[in-house]
Every structure is written in C-alpha cells, then in structure tokens.
Amino acid sequence: MQRIILFDGVCNFCNSSVQFIIKRDPKGHFKFASLQGEIGQQLLNQHGLNSKMDSFVLIEDDNIFFESTAVLRVCRKLKGGWKLLAGLFIVPSPLRNSIYKIIAKNRYKWFGKKDSCMLPRPEWRNRFLD
What we know:
The protein is an alpha+beta fold. The protein has one domain. It has four helices and four strands. It has a four-stranded mixed β-sheet with strand order 2-1-3-4, sandwiched between helices. The longest helix has 19 residues, at 93-111. It is globular, with a radius of gyration of 14 Å. The chain starts with a strand and ends in a 19-residue tail after the last helix.
C-alpha cells in the first residue's frame, strides 16, 4: 500500500510533524510531499482537490483523508504508544476536526513560518517525493 502525506512545507509545526513521523516510522510506511511542491500539486490535481488545499492530507492508494482523520490514521502506523491515539476515532469527526482547525488556523502564529520549504536530511531524502 502506498501512503503519501501532503503537508504545508513552509509551516514550522508541519515540518516538525514530518520529522516526528519519520523518526517513528522506521519501516518507511509514509512518503512525503509538500503542498507547495510540484508533486504535491500534481497529487492534489490528480485527486480532484483544490490546489490551494491547506490541510494535512493522507493519500492511501486511492483513498484521501483530511484533518484529524488523516492524523489518526498516521498515528496507527507509528511505533510506540502513538498507536493508542487511534482510539480517538470514537470521538465524532466534527468534534475532532474542530480541534484540528483551531491548531491549523493558528499554526503560523504559534509556531512560525519559513520563507521556503524545508530541505530533508540526506538520510531522509528517499522519503520525499518532491
């Protein structure tokens, strides 16, 4: 199964989240592409999504997941206790997504923003699609 995470490449919180995932995904379940990059834009277009998409997106084969659902699906594959967060699926998605949206709306204010997308470490380069 192919799993691709699309993330905001200029967001400090999003970049830290990608590094967090990589460190807890030793089997390499996930590949990454920034929403701003060429491949990220191609994937959005290929799946009929708005090129201005501003959400954490998980593509699993031909299935698309957004917001808190995408986050929890990723947590299920991480090593350690992070799998337990998938138990939050019992919380209705409108409630989960309202919390997600508060964080997403304030992420630049709380965590900052870069002028350009991060460059991955050389040992992680094969995990990035663009």
